[in-house]
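Researcher: Going back to the complex we discussed earlier. I've cleaned up the inputs and rechecked each line, so this should be the final set. Can you rerun the prediction on the complete assembly and write out the structure?
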Amino acid sequence: MTKKGLILLLTILMMMGTVLPVFAQGAAEATAPAKEIELRWASIWVGADSKAGPVAAIVEEFNAANAGKIKVVIEPQPDYNAYEQKVRTSLAAGIAPADIFTIKLNPTTAEFYNSNLLMDFSKVFTGSWKSSFEAGSVNQSTIGGKLKSLPFETAILPMWYNMDILAKVGVTKVPQTVDEFWSLMDKLKAAGITATSQMTGDTNAWTSMIWFSHFAVSLGGPDVWSKPFTDPAFVQAAEYIKRMIVNYSTADAIGLGAGGSGGHFLAGRTAVFSNGPWYAGRADLAATPFFKNITIAGLPGFGSTSNYMISRIQANICAAASKDAAREAAIVKFLQFLTSPEKVKSIAQPSGAMFAVKTDAKPANHLQVQFTQLANSVAVSAPDFEAAMGAEATKEFTQQLSALALGKITAQEFTKLVALKINQD
Amino acid sequence: MKSEQNFGTRLLTIVKWFILLFFLLVALLPLVWLFINSFRSNLELQISSFGWPQKWLFSNYIKAMEMASLPRLFLNSVITSASAVALNIIVAAMAGFILSREFFKGRDTIYTVLTAGVLVPIIAFMVPYFSLISRSGIYNTLFALILVYASVNIPVSIFLVTSFMRSIPKELEEAAIIDGCSFTQRFTKIIFPLTQSGLVTAGTFCFIYSWNDFIMAMLLTSSIESRTIQLGIKFFSSQFITDYTTMFAAIILTIIPSVGAYMFLHNKIISGLTAGAVKG
Amino acid sequence: MPRLLFLLPVLVLFIGFFIYPFLFTLGTSLTRWRGIGSMQFNGLKNYTRLLADPTFRLAMKNNLIWALAQGFIQVPLAALVAMILLRQPKGWQTLRTVYFLPNVISTVAIAMMWTALYNVQYGFINEVLVKFFKREPINFLGNPDFALGAVIFQAVIYIGYFMIVILAAGMNIPRELYEAAEIDGASVFQQERYITIPMLRGTLVTTVTLAMAYGIRHFEATYLMTQGGPMHSTTTMGIDLYDKMDALRYSDASTEGVLLIIFGSVMIVVIRKIFGKSDPMSEMAQ
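Model: Rerun complete. Updated structure for the full complex:
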């Protein structure tokens, strides 16, 4: 080895050395405070999210009240898809993604319940803490006697009617019967107005998936998802959704994403749209001329079930299991604080979001008020296709929905193809 | 004859400029689109993706800049990308030198295996990467990102660097050996300087990857101190709502420096080296 | 000894970030593993199942189309532009920078723009089609007959990436060669044909190989524009692999990853055989 070679190697080492302080800095941070328990929360309620402000305030209040003992640190998680990927990658690597994090509970993510990395709340989730939650959501989140995630944010997925457009064809109220519904669709079509914002793009064909879920639940009852997917209720629902896409939607519905579907409604180009409560808080929606004249309602009963609603738990809170009892106690203490009706109300009121914790929140926005009223008035509710069937089935649903709308397959074939993915072991 | 030739030359010039302008248009389109939309409201964008702003909203830029952590994230990106490029180029040049200018048993196998790395879909390696980084205790550090970016780009860099190194005439090196150049000197005095344009190209690839990467940065970091600008841009995108036009403003703000770096590298370094380029 | 020292850093990083993850992927591909809990040995069952899966076969075909389009449309276009720029026309340095610009813009924004351009109702391309060609509008991304072509088109016209490689190599060609050819009365085409192309042969093979490798592992732009739809028509192995991870089918995702690498390696070997003569490796060995 020559002198020059040594010099070169030294230069490289020095280069790495300049980089190392960055590494050292990060390491030092993690070990600095001694006694205090630091809880890291991988939070999706940050940035542009309407719950970001109230959530940050709650954390601040908790940290102030527990100064020197517990400190909750929010790790902001932008871009929801990437966040989900991080959670599953981390769990697959055998490491909890953070002390506190959220998941969307469905048959796919239910797999997480098999992980020892997640804390089981069933022992501590009792008494008044438990009774402040809606029992249905708690049941849905309890799998095999274990409660490895607490139901938190919920949503109903109703229809949005632009009454200004309906008025153009002489309709002044939301259709109450199937006949009224089809007659509205035909009147709009005859008047050259696109009736609905359907879509078959993205990973879940979101707005059309909501429509399909409405049809299916009405036709097959609230426990329709436990039936085989080739059930006549699903075939009929597939016929209906095809009719909606082909006859009563925008020309770009096939392949369209949720942004495009919502864009049509925001532009006043479509009369009926479907989405959850979060859409009600959008600034761009409030800026539309028809904002005041939107009615939130369900669909008439296409089958034997009427006065139903599609609902889902949108976020469940998980925590990392720890051998250190003090740490787990600190997590429980924070979660009790966060999910107390008073704190949940402080998030629900300004954001219009809905929660599994019962509160008397009164959102300011008239659409959010309609959401709350509708949720309280329906007789039964059932989850949507995605929440009931998981990620894989939803992707196949989306792909084959295009085929169905293009007339490449029949409704029967559609249900068979999707059933293949549902039944895959 | 003469006029025919003139016609031919003129036609050639027209075709040449048609091609150049076509690709100019193609390349400028997204930039112009992004720039115009960064002044529009989200409602306008949702209603129609093409169109002038009803009112030029500079507020999008103010909102983008108000995101307090932007300077820090930007600095992190600069440190990460620059270090990753430096690390990547130095190690790839050293290996490329051996793989292109030396002959020994197993060399071709090493070269083939290294370059086969360009086939790897990095998303398939997320679990082992996360595992490796977390267990070696460098999770949530810039160092982790530097290491990953420099390593992920090794196959491409080896590919490009060896390809450039092979084109250097053997005679140059042979002459150097006769002049008494040592092994290391052959690398530092001859091969390294002569392949600078190749190194800059490989460095550009590595830089673009490091600067644009979102997936690894999201996976391997968790706090502002060690996150990069791409996470800052995505900060305008949450579960239910994406503030696209502000995000566009942030993108415009962040591409300015990367374009600057690119122009510096290519116009100063490459052009400086190539006094001998063709005139036509 | 110095040889080993020069190779060592690359080998260490490569083992850490390629060999180890590959072995992990290979290992999990032989198991049943949903990312959580223990793995059960499953032999080659994942492979036989995946190879029989029509979506995977379609993905393989699509990746091959991607690889061919990138290697034999994108690279030649890049070479053409690079050859024009090598003659340093007015403003060539600016053009070089501008052509490269799309690569520094986030892919998300570019995908959004193209999705909008292709829209059947409001897209600019359909407006042109209807107004100037009197054609029926086409739902490019919603029609399985057009979707793959549409996504590939918007990718191959961005030539900047490969152009800079060819440009950098072209600048190393000695100017004297062209001067001599000029004196001999060689036309521009002859100069390109007999000087530039042969001199750039090694670089072109490298670039084509690289472009095809990118085609084989293609993922991002399609995922952002169509998520593999409609009717799986634009799906690629990368998308299928991602979807499998999304469904917590990690062992299936690993299987697909391994098959992708094998498939890609076979393709590269074939390319090397075809361009065998110009493979610089074999030249060197002689």
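Model: Worth noting: Residues 68-236 of chain B form a domain with the MetI-like fold fold (CATH 1.10.3720.10).
Researcher: Good, that matches what I expected from the previous run.
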